[in-house]
């Protein structure tokens, strides 16, 4: 097909739902889109249709080795799609028994986390970061805060300290950018994780690195390392977006901004609204058709890529109404996807986000956005709608003499 809509027109825009509506009016709940020039895919936008895809591993695989344009060499090796759509040896890109084996350590590790201890660690991390800039009276709550809290927190779960957490973040950013510095970044990433794994072999602790080293499902150091990378990178990307979007909402929407002055809607309401309106992943890659099939009238060919339009599905009138009172407590959204690959870290993700937002709003006095709300720019991405920056002003604390 020619003249396909670029998928980024559903993310890097002021009104993403308008883009989804336009596609649905033309094509229905499954529409052809362009991921990058010359690389088509299907965007699945209906709630029911996404559930059909994610719950049927016999028809739709998570393994990119089943993506025809990838195996035929049509997608360039340095494509920006690589970080999210090229195969890696971890649970995210596996199906069936292999997926269950590799996901087991993630589920078990997350279940073993002490929530009280975790909450203290997250709050201490947030407080330390705010102390770095609170006397300046201004900050960027994305670059200085929302983009740092998840990395330091999730890295901390693996016993990686703050200094190495910053180093790890820089390595992952460079690695996933597919830029010229990706090779040195990969080496640095491997060095940090190998050192941490070796340290835990010599002196085991109760962190997730030790748990992964001991887990019978992980058969070698490479699988252990890739599982750590998956948890850290996934936690970093999605939680950064959730924190940033929740802070943006509470600073710009009068229903939530009023809460800081006694209004009726609070942080938990804002967290849920973001999951509905701007979920951490707007469009989630990918599933690959294992056979020719039909989905909501669209003729899918074997090897086609299907992208899950989670943000669109959350706006599906079959599951979501415009009545805010009817929506109280409604968590039938697909922000975490569904099926075997549903996000395993919903509880810790919510804890990190809630504490990060709460700590910022309580420690930064008289905080307000330093630019008009409609000037908040988004990071260009076909997958997320994360604010590029949130410049704010606030009253610095009084220094002790």
Lay out the secondary structure.
Blueprint (H helix, E strand, L loop, with lengths): L4 E2 L9 H12 L2 E7 L2 E6 L2 H8 L5 E2 L6 H4 L10 H4 L10 H17 L2 H19 L4 E3 L1 H5 L2 H9 L4 H15 L5 H21 L5 H7 L6 H32 L1 H4 L9 H11 L5 E7 L3 E3 L2 E3 L4 E5 H5 L31 H18 L1 E5 L21 E5 L6
Parallel strand pairs: 1-2, 3-9
Antiparallel strand pairs: 2-3, 4-6, 5-11, 6-9, 7-8, 10-11
Name a few traits of the molecule.
alpha+beta; 16 helices; 401 residues; Cytochrome p450; 3-stranded antiparallel beta sheet; 12% strand
Helix percent band: 40-55%
- Largest sheet features: 6 strands, mixed
Name of the CATH first level: Mainly Alpha
* Widest beta sheet: strand line-up: 1-2-3-9-6-4
Family: Belongs to the cytochrome P450 family.
Organism: Actinophytocola glycyrrhizae
Protein name: Cytochrome P450
InterPro entries: Cyt_P450_B (IPR002397), Cyt_P450_sf (IPR036396)
